[in-house]
Each structure stands twice: as C-alpha cells, then as structure tokens.
Amino acid sequence: MTTATEATALRAGAGEYVLRTAGPGDVGGARAVMLDTVYRDLRSGYVPRWHADIIDPETAYLRPARCTLLVAEYAGEIVATGAVRDRGPQAPPNPQWVADRFPSGTTAQLCRIYVRPEHRRHGLARRMVRELCAFAARVGGYEAVYLHTDPAVPGAEPFWRSLAREVCDERALPGGGQGIVHFELPLPGAGSLPES
C-alpha cells in the first residue's frame, strides 16, 4: 500500500486519477470541491461553525502533524478530497455519549470525503478511506477512527455501511436528532477495510 505522502495513480477510462497528499497549491481546488458539495449535496450551504476548515484547509489539515488532506486530481483538476482531523464529535449537537466514546486527541475523524458527481464510481472515496486510515495508524496516538454522514446525500449511507460499523443512527433517537449516522472504522492492524 502506498503511503498518504506518495502519489498513486488510478486508471479511469482514457485518463488517470492521481491521489496524493495536498499541498498549499491544492487548497483552492480542494476548497472548491468542498464548497460545491456542501451547497449541492448537503444543501446546508456554508455554515461557519461547521465548515471553518473548508475556508482554511491549510491551517486545519496541512499544518498539524496528526491531520492530513488528500486530493484526487484528474486532468489537472482537483476532483475529490478526504481528510483526517484529530478532533472527535462535539456535544451538542451530537449525542453526549457519542462524543464521550470518541474523544478529541485519540480519535481520528474522517471528514470532507467528497467526490465530484461526474467522478464517482471510480473507487476514489474507497481508496481515500484506506489511505486516511493508514495515515491515522502510521501517525500514532489514535485509538479510534470515527465519521458521520448525512443519509440524505445520494449513495453516502450505503457506501459507509459497506466499510464501517454503525455506532448511532440519529433518525432512531427521540425527535430524530440531526438525522445523521455515526460510524466507526477499524484502524489498520486492528481490523481491515474491504478491498472492493
């Protein structure tokens, strides 16, 4: 397996995707993918308390040693992103017991795993998840890999159910919570991610 700092190519049709750790020159393209996703797929638009990392990905992901941002490039354009941050879910808005189970500092939170619609179904997100989990294991100090998803985003819930174990489906809580689903993934060495 390649490390998150090495560029790796995935073939797709007449071209190829290059998956690599983002650098300062990738910030604008990564930000565009993220903002397009929060407006188009999540339909929340930019919400400062949730999306500050999107505006300044360099500070959020490129500078801290235990965080990273991956990008996938196709024909010179950033078409997908994926990140690890060293912060667990916060309560509120998440259930307190979920926040307690995944404390900041020892939780690698996968986030901003976004692929432009025209580049989906090429294995980019699955490959990013593998690389991000490998990064979390390699950097050390993490005891859990956590993520949450909005099941209203087309394809998101079945994708995460194919890779991760559900921890909490807020739709089953009294009042429906935020309507999101919380998941845990194994750290490499503690379990495995499906290859397909």
Quick summary of this structure?
By secondary structure, this protein is α+β, with helices and mostly antiparallel strands. It has helices at residues 27-40, 48-55, 57-62, 96-101, 124-139, 156-163, and strands at 8-12, 15-21, 68-74, 77-85, 107-115, 144-149, 165-169, 181-185.
Task: Describe the protein in words.
It is a single chain. This protein has an eight-stranded mixed beta sheet, with helices on both faces. The chain contains six helices and eight strands, in the order ββαααββαβαβαββ. Strand 3 and strand 4 form a beta hairpin. It is globular, with a radius of gyration of 16 Å. The protein has 196 residues and is α+β, with helices and mostly antiparallel strands. The N terminus is likely disordered.
